[in-house]
Automatic annotation (TrEMBL):
Name by which UniProt lists this protein: Sulfotransferase
GO biological process: sulfation
Similarity section: Belongs to the sulfotransferase 1 family.
Residues spanning the membrane: none
Pfam family, one: Sulfotransfer_1
Cellular component GO terms, alphabetical: cytoplasm
EC number, as in UniProt: 2.8.2.-
Gene giving rise to this polypeptide: LOC107926666
Amino acid sequence: DSDLIQKADERYRETLPNLPKGKGWMTQHLVQYQGFWVNPDAALKNLMWIQDHFKPRPTDIFLASFPKSGTTWLKALIFAIVNRTRYGFADHPLLTTGPHDCFPFLYAHLYEKDRSRFDLDGFPSPRLLSSHIPYASLPNSMTDNQSYRFIYICRDPKDVLVSTWLFMNKLRPKELAPLSLEEAFELFCQGISPYGPFWDHVLGYWRASLETPEKILFLKYEELKKEPFVIVKSLGEFLGYPFSLEEESKGVVEEIVKLCSFENLSNLEVNRTSVQKFSKGATVDNRHFFREGKVGDWRNYLTAEMVERLDEITYHNLLASGLLF
Ligand code: A3P
């Protein structure tokens, strides 16, 4: 395994100096790799490792998202749906373990000292794995497999922008001046944000979901907020864990929605006080993953001109695709 990590590191070292640079949100710079902007350290290394060495299993369940679109929420929901016969709601793992530990990122094991904690090969099936990798950059082994399942969650870019800006400024090292909203807005519009351009990211998964709807379920944060019961049921169906009539009449769907609600998760001790370790040096307080959890909080931050410009970019980029926000 360490040989493989070293190999990915070599490709990384050869590639990095040739990539275009842009201003970073959490780090000083982002670099553009295969059309998308990523953090030049961990994110790019991880991405290359996955492209070169990750071995999917036919039963894997992948959660894909643009950052700040509802990843944490979906992790909790999918974990609760798939494992609902294993755990009771009174002593459920999600009550004491953060969603990102229950449902790790694909590369979570790479920098873990205690490898056994995130030993991907040792994970029981179905493995629940997440990533922000754009669809076009996924290795063929992940997209060609006939049985793979992807859930993609997207969100109104105005809320994504605000959520990203506030989140990244919390994580931005003190040596770097905070990013102003005006600057963040400009960068976001130009596509220069982690895993941006936003619109290309969303369209990659949207088109793939139209081509292979049985493999990729495309969800919207706003719809999940509006009709959580309907969507949790369709998630169960899609993932091959349909809810029986008996489960429905016993209120299992409601229990899952309640367990994973913003109100419930954000008030748990584990999500208020513990820290999430993503890669070497990159630790994030769990509480940063729970801010407002609302639709339309952009109204409290963006000016009318910003809204008009961002909506216009979204309209133009998505017009031909049939995807609307
Ligand atoms: P806000 O910053 O708008 O509040 P991600 O998980 O992809 O990083 O996205 C984080 C966003 O999802 C944050 O949005 C966060 O508050 C919101 N969120 C986290 N858990 C949620 C939940 N259980 N229900 C609804 N929204 C949630």
